[in-house]
Write a structure and sequence with these properties.
Elements: E1 22-24, H1 30-43, E2 50-57, E3 66-68, E4 71-79, E5 86-94, E6 100-105, E7 111-115, E8 126-127, E9 135-142, E10 151-160, E11 176-177, H2 187-190, E12 193-198, E13 202-208, E14 219-222, E15 237-239, E16 258-260, E17 262-268, E18 273-278, E19 304-308, E20 316-320, E21 325-327, E22 340-343, E23 359-361, E24 367-374, E25 384-388, H3 389-394, H4 404-407
Parallel strand pairs: 1-4
Antiparallel strand pairs: 2-10, 3-4, 4-9, 5-8, 5-10, 6-7, 6-9, 11-20, 12-13, 12-15, 13-14, 14-18, 15-16, 17-18, 19-20, 19-23, 21-22, 22-25, 23-24, 24-25
């Protein structure tokens, strides 16, 4: 498999890129988009980092194949002046053995890892992570004898207007990096949490979740309002280990540990949960863990700990020293309708837009809910509300509306698991 340094062997010089087929997108009105984001935040909706642009580009209709040292190469250039990033959604993606897809900036300073036949999946789609450039080449190389076997079409380009670690709309200063000493003892749980994008445009937080068989099936949970459903699950991209290298240090998180694609399993609006199965297991070298949980009616004992990505910034950790309270979403009395876990106010840290879908753990290091919403922020003592795992367990009783059918596959009746 070729490295980025060997891309030049394909026979296309930098100057040749000006001659290949290209698509151009007008600059975005970033001020207007930020205003829209503030409105979304007030509504409790998942925030956005990019504007999706629908396209229909494939090697059959657009451009031509060029002979290269490794077979035949097709390229397309995407330019969006002043975009913070670009990402791509392929509505058709099935590569033959020996084929390679490379996505890199026109100046060759940025590169997403090579995609191959190993990235083929049940959805026949591919959604990429962001590439930090506004001028990007999508390049497909295929062995000569396999060109007829290629299934490949670019259907969407995400034009980024805010992104990871951006200086504007950053998370508040009271957030605690997971690199800080406060997270000592929570390392296993920290490694179960990732930041996600869906549809190439929206972001939230989510986490790998254990099951009663302890078999490391790649189940992944987030919030229902993050809008992962049967039609959008294929577009899920999870970034692991996006966190600072030093406590309070530079925002130097890396986005190189990622995986793409999932299958929808279940969701529920009452307790705001969504469960999918990732197309592949996380790579062992990423040290991703599977969070344990407590689905019983008890277990909301302090301290309560949240691990999340505030405002799509690097991973943070927050603490509440008091017991959680059972409540309705947004309610001030207990137990209300019993669908949510209320964190009265964070004693250390906070949550923000982008933290949605993140887990809250009890003192036994077990998830009891995922973040639905609330008013918490640096500088206030407002409450947050987590969809109660106990409610989601039975849900509406259906396979697509409950956790029990999936997280207790052997029907053991066990309602508590540990992180593995």
């Amino acid at each position: 498999m070729k490295s980025f340094a060997l891309l030049a062997t394909l026979g296309l010089s930098f100057s040749a890129f000006s001659a290949i087929n290209s698509s151009y997108f007008e600059p975005l009105d970033v001020d207007a988009l930020h205003t829209q984001e503030l409105a979304r935040e007030h509504k409790g909706e998942a925030p956005h980092f990019a504007v999706p642009k629908v396209v229909s580009i494939n090697p059959t209709r657009d451009g031509s194949w060029e002979k290269s040292s490794e077979g035949y190469t097709w390229s397309h250039r995407f330019t969006a002046p002043n975009a913070v990033s670009l990402n791509f959604g392929f509505s058709q993606f099935n590569l033959p053995e020996g084929a390679e897809l490379n996505i890199f900036s026109a100046d060759r300073s940025e590169f997403i890892r090579t995609f191959t036949a190993r990235d083929n999946n049940v959805n026949n789609e591919l959604w990429t992570p962001v590439i930090m450039s506004d001028d990007v080449i999508v390049e497909l190389t295929v062995p000569e004898e396999s060109i007829a076997d290629v299934q490949f079409e670019v259907a969407q380009v995400g034009q980024g207007f805010r992104t990871f670690g951006q200086s504007t709309l950053k998370s508040g200063s009271c957030n605690i990096d997971v690199a800080c000493t406060e997270s000592v003892g929570w390392e296993k749980e920290v490694n179960s949490v990732g930041v996600i994008s869906t549809g190439g445009s929206a972001f939230c937080t989510g986490f790998m979740v254990n099951n009663t068989s302890n078999d490391k099936t790649p189940f992944f949970m987030t919030a229902n309002h993050c809008r992962i459903n049967a039609s959008s699950a294929a577009s899920l991209v999870v970034y692991w280990n996006y966190q600072t290298s030093k406590c309070g240090g530079d925002r130097d998180g890396k986005m190189t540990d990622f995986q793409s694609g999932s299958t929808f399993l279940a969701s529920g609006s009452k307790s705001d949960f969504s469960l999918v199965k990732l197309n592949t297991a996380p790579e062992a070298r990423w040290n991703v863990n599977f969070a344990g949980w407590d689905a019983t009616a008890e277990g909301y004992n302090s301290p309560m700990t949240a691990i999340h990505h505030p405002n799509v910034d690097e991973k943070s950790i927050s603490f509440e020293n008091d017991n959680a309270v059972i409540a309705s979403y947004g309610g001030q009395t207990s137990p209300g309708d019993g669908t949510h876990v209320r964190i009265t106010d964070w004693d250390k840290g906070t949550t923000e837009p982008g933290s949605s879908g993140s887990p809250v753990f009890n003192k036994d290091h077990r998830v009891v809910g995922q973040l639905h919403g609330g008013g918490a922020a640096c500088g206030n003592d407002l409450s947050d509300y987590y969809g109660r795992l106990n409610t989601s367990w039975n849900g509406d009783g259906s396979k697509t509306g409950s956790l029990k059918e999936h997280l207790d596959p052997a029907k053991t009746g066990v309602m508590v698991t540990n992180t593995i």
